[in-house]
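Figure 2 data, in text form.
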Amino acid sequence: MEIIRIDEKKKQFISLLLLADEQENMIDRYLERGVMYALYDDNGVIKAECVVTDEGNGVLEIKNIAVAPEFQRKGYGQALIDFLVTEYAGKFSVLQVGTGDSPLTVPFYEKCGFVRSHSIKNFFIDNYDNPIYENGALLRDMIYFKRNI
């Protein structure tokens, strides 16, 4: 497994990013200002991607983390988070992530050492063109999690 920083032509990776953030113009808000990483297996197959941004005051935010469906639940998402913690330790004090209040994503972040921080009411309702459902539930609020690094 190899994790590579992507500095150019980030839009060519959009299909996988859309799994985690299904509205392209929302991805456009952070893609170019963020740092992107891609996780490849030993055969050069991309398994996962993430984009992180410097939010100031020592906070690094995961704006997008996506694992290709056929490779989910195999540790690739956690491997990316572990990489970020190691890569940015000493440069940032907090790693945070915002997500919908979903039984699919919340346990993942908690397993990775994150704790609930705060929320933004109606974020998904106010910022997305269409309703977003995950596991049959309408996403409304953005729930933020943080982890000290």
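Caption note: The radius of gyration is 15 Å.
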